């Protein structure tokens, strides 16, 4: 008696494995998150994100050019706002000459073909570190959505190709889409963080932008009233289908690795591209383990990004984008 089928035949050599490989990583898979700060000549490393930096606008331009030369054609911008400009209504977020608005123009001037995506949420602008307006111990939904729509419009006016609302307010995609259409921005895309979980993996990101929720009495100390409970699966589908109905062009699952079941569920349920955000804590974990010699950095990194794509992601925002592209080129 012989085994009827011998699957190992197709694993015998690198040549045969390459031939039957189902998932290939290329530079086209990546969106590069970039952190921007005020000043000049600044490239400061983020303490909890080794080898990841905040750039002032002059060095943001240099970085954008380098990314383009590596074949990385999309960036996702985040800004670190000084405390003096923070309030509870997102005033600075709408400033036509604010840091985000200038960052968009800087990247577009440096590399006109670069796809520029922008984070739309109030947390970097909020004295409370919340994604929306806080009142009576709550994050106000509709008032926040209205400001977020104005924020998206402001980014579009500055030249953003795609706005990426990461706030999880109900109905904000509809508000945004309606305002963009009303104002003639028909071609501005919306990449919705549609299934965004209340995750402890965002810690290093909040260090990078100094945007963590504050610990003040009567102010919610976490984001659980708007971001999703990580115990839930059906809810992710509901959120995502609603965002598509409301006008999202691309939907996103966030974080990445712990949520690949959700990615596959959503991939099977929708007919728009699905993005994944491999978040700051996922990056920090691997960097820390690799620094100690406990994990092989490059091997684990490739395994992770391949798993994200295999699960159904058409694209991923990843802090590893440059490392990966350098490794595979
Ligand atoms: C802001 C925002 C966060 C991230 C992206 N946009 C943090 C949060 O929701 O608290 C997290 C990204 C990361 O951890 O890499 N709304």
Automatic annotation (TrEMBL):
<comment type="pathway">
    <text>Porphyrin-containing compound metabolism; protoporphyrin-IX biosynthesis; coproporphyrinogen-III from 5-aminolevulinate: step 1/4.</text>
</comment>
<feature type="active site" description="Schiff-base intermediate with substrate">
    <location>
        <position position="196"/>
    </location>
</feature>
<dbReference type="GO" id="GO:0005829">
    <property type="term" value="C:cytosol"/>
</dbReference>
<protein>
    <recommendedName>
        <fullName>Delta-aminolevulinic acid dehydratase</fullName>
        <ecNumber>4.2.1.24</ecNumber>
    </recommendedName>
</protein>
<feature type="binding site">
    <location>
        <position position="239"/>
    </location>
    <ligand>
        <name>Mg(2+)</name>
    </ligand>
</feature>
<keyword id="KW-0479">Metal-binding</keyword>
<comment type="similarity">
    <text>Belongs to the ALAD family.</text>
</comment>
<feature type="active site" description="Schiff-base intermediate with substrate">
    <location>
        <position position="254"/>
    </location>
</feature>
<keyword id="KW-0350">Heme biosynthesis</keyword>
<dbReference type="InterPro" id="IPR001731">
    <property type="entry name" value="ALAD"/>
</dbReference>
<dbReference type="GO" id="GO:0006782">
    <property type="term" value="P:protoporphyrinogen IX biosynthetic process"/>
</dbReference>
<comment type="subunit">
    <text>Homooctamer.</text>
</comment>
<dbReference type="GO" id="GO:0004655">
    <property type="term" value="F:porphobilinogen synthase activity"/>
</dbReference>
<dbReference type="Pfam" id="PF00490">
    <property type="entry name" value="ALAD"/>
</dbReference>
<dbReference type="InterPro" id="IPR030656">
    <property type="entry name" value="ALAD_AS"/>
</dbReference>
<dbReference type="GO" id="GO:0008270">
    <property type="term" value="F:zinc ion binding"/>
</dbReference>
<keyword id="KW-0627">Porphyrin biosynthesis</keyword>
<keyword id="KW-0460">Magnesium</keyword>
<dbReference type="InterPro" id="IPR013785">
    <property type="entry name" value="Aldolase_TIM"/>
</dbReference>
<keyword id="KW-0456">Lyase</keyword>
């Amino acid at each position: 008696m012989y085994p009827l089928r011998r699957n190992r035949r197709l694993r015998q050599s690198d040549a045969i494995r390459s031939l039957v490989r189902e998932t290939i990583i290329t530079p086209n898979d990546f969106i590069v998150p970039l952190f921007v700060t005020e000043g000049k000549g600044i490239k400061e490393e983020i303490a909890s994100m080794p080898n990841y930096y905040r750039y002032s606008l002059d060095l943001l331009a240099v970085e954008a050019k380098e990314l383009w030369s590596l074949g990385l054609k999309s960036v996702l911008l985040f800004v670190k706002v000084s405390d003096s400009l923070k309030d509870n209504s997102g005033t600075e977020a709408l400033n036509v000459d604010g840091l985000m608005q200038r960052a968009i123009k800087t990247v577009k001037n440096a590399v006109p073909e670069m796809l520029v995506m922008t984070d739309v949420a109030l947390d970097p602008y909020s004295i409370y570190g919340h994604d929306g307006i806080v009142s009576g111990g709550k994050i106000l939904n509709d008032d926040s959505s209205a400001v977020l729509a104005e924020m998206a419009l402001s980014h579009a006016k500055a030249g953003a190709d795609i706005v990426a609302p990461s706030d999880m307010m109900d109905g904000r995609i509809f508000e945004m889409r309606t305002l963009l259409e009303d104002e003639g921005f028909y071609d501005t895309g919306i990449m919705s963080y549609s299934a965004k979980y209340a995750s402890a993996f965002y810690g290093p990101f909040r260090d990078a932008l100094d945007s963590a929720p504050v610990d003040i009495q009567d102010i919610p100390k976490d984001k659980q009233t708007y971001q999703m409970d990580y115990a839930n699966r059906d809810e992710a589908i509901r959120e995502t289908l609603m965002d598509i109905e409301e006008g999202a062009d691309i939907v996103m699952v966030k974080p990445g690795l712990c949520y690949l079941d959700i990615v596959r569920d959503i991939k099977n349920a929708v007919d728009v591209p699905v993005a994944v955000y491999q978040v700051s804590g996922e990056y920090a974990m691997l960097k820390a383990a690799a620094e100690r010699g406990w994990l092989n950095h490059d091997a684990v990194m490739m395994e992770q990004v391949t798993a994200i794509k295999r699960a159904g992601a058409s694209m991923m925002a990843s802090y590893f984008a440059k490392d990966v592209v350098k490794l595979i080129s």
